[in-house]
Amino acid sequence: MDDELFLNERIKVVVVFGEGLNPCQPIKFRRANCREVTITEIGLRHPCLKGKRMMHIFDVTDGQADYRIEFDAERLNWTLTREADHQDA
Amino acid sequence: MRDGYNFEKPLIMHVDLNSAFATIEQQSRPLLRNKPVAIINRRTEHTSIVTASYEAKSYGVKVGMKFAEAARLAPGLIAIESDPAKYRFVYQKLMAILNSYSPYVVMKSIDEGVIDFHHMSNCPNLIDIGHEIKRRLRDEIGVAMRCNVGIGPNRFLAKTAAGLHKPDGMDLIDADNLRTVYATLKLTDLTGIAGQMEKRLNAVGVFTPLEFLDTDKIALQKVVFKSITGCQWYERLRGYEVDDVVADTRTVGRQYVLENRNLTRQQTTNRLHHLCESVGSRLRFQSKAARGVYVYIRTVDHQLWHASRICQLPFYSDKTINFIAQQLFMNAPDRIMEIGIHCYELTDNDDSQMSLFCDTLAREQQLVGAVDDINKRFGDRTIHSADTLNTNEFVKQKIPFGSTKYL
Q1: Residue B146 has what pLDDT?
Q2: Does A16 fall in a domain?
Q3: Has residue A68 got a pLDDT over 70?
Q4: Higher pLDDT, A5 or B124
Q5: Which residue, B30, B86, B240, B283, has most beta carbons within 10 Å?
């Protein structure tokens, strides 16, 4: 049941801003321990208000684990907030 | 045999997301796809399952089942805590898609909506629209999204059609295939027929939908239902519209199953206070005021205790709701498992009638308005009672089933 890690880790992200239904596409990110995660699929992107700050929440995967990364549209920074590999279930 | 059926062209479409919350989680977390997933509201073994994926359902996991029991049935069952913000986003996406086909769209709940094509002059083929909606769900939300589409001459038959071939089905029911479809169903497969209603029908010799369909109108009204409901069922089963009604809000409420059965009385009253703030906020969101407060308790021995009070003047502030609720709660028994509060006797809060005590009320009104404005701008519960400082992590906002009022 508890296969999910809740984090608050500042990350560096490579993003492509294009067009279409999903104009903002994170490609890969670097974690605090310098490990690089290459995103193979964006599961869902949904906006969420934290007070008056708009956060864009991306649920993504690298094929090994699912991650949640959040983009703060006011402060323009990225945070890794969840990691789950669903292996222990 | 087909006399009295509605032969009108089917122009009602019912769209229903398959195992909505589980599918949304499988969409957003690709590693969950093709695995048994259960959506829960709380990370404990005793929690109940809100939604199960089709993979979990194939093991016999059902909605409402305790997680521990479900985990025994489905080895490797993955529990995911519900994420209302995400489901709300998908709901808004679904609503936008449905609204692009007709202005007459009614969202029946967070995962289903009805499109009425009656008012359109050049009505396109509904089967084509159904396929297009399925494709747009995959394109605009994600590749794992699936939905059932049902088409019928009324809302009831459209919903019945949507449930015929899950998941990802599309069916049409009209006067021509009505009897054939009913012949494949059980009574409880019909929306609105559950345990008690089934017993009532069985008592008069009705055991199948076809027998229900063939029952005389007068018998349904005078013998089975003993009310106008019998006539409505007679019409509904034949494809005539009787469900195109908008029900008024009569109560606003919330309940909470305590996270721990050994909480002190003070801790329980704090959680009740949190519920009062939540109910007050919902009341004002709908521009309503209430005159009555109803509090109920369910004990660990499954005993139900309840109390209510009605006031002369309407109210809508958290402070007043909490004041009345706490007074009622003083007489409640111990060993509490669940608490709940409802406000009733609702009226529109239009401030047209000035009270003799208008100074006090006007001050309260301004204060409540200011707090609501701050919470709206900076986020829910930015300002709340000091009593409920520590309750946030327990009494979380959950998924509003059956109503789309607060989405």
Answers
A1: 92
A2: no
A3: yes
A4: A5
A5: B283
- In a shared domain, residues B200 and B238: yes
Closest-CA residue of chain A to B90 = A46
Q: B353 with B325, same domain?
A: yes
Contact at CB, A89 and B78, closer than 8 angstroms: yes
Give domain status of residue A33, yes or no: yes
Q: What is the CATH number of the domain that holds B320?
A: 3.30.1490.100
Check CB contact under 8 Å for A1 and B139. no
Smallest CA–CA separation between A65 and chain B, in Å? 7
**Which residues in chain A touch residue B24, judged by CB atoms under 8 angstroms apart?**
44
What does the pLDDT look like over A38-51, one tens digit per residue? Answer: 999 999 999 998 87
Give exposure, B39-56, as e/b (b: 16+ Cβ within 10 Å): bbbbeeeebbbbbbbbbb
Helix (H, G, I), strand (E, B) or coil at B103: coil
Same domain, residue pair B164 and B310: no
In chain B, which residues have their Cβ closer than 8 Å to the Cβ of A84?
A: 29, 31
Probe site for chain A from B23, B29, B33, B43 (most A CB atoms < 10 A): B29
Number of alpha carbons in the 13 Å side-chain half-sphere of residue B293: 27
Location of structure tokens 């959950």: B398
Residues of chain B with Cβ-Cβ distance to A86 below 8 Å are 29, 31-32, 35, 78
- Ranges of residues in chain B whose predicted pLDDT is under 70: 1-3, 350-360, 397-407
Give pLDDT, residue B354: 60
Which residue range forms the structural domain that includes residue B274? 252-388
Same domain, B19 and B159: yes
Q: B4: phi > 0 → left, psi -120 to 50 → alpha, else beta; which?
A: left
The structural domain count of chain B equals 3
Please report whether residue B400 resides in a domain: no
Provide the pLDDT for residue A89.
47
Q: Nearest Cα to B304, choosing from B267, B255, B360? A: B255
What's the pLDDT at A20?
Answer: 81
Please report the pLDDT score of residue A87 as a whole number: 64
Q: Based on the domain organization, do B158 and B171 belong to the same domain?
A: yes
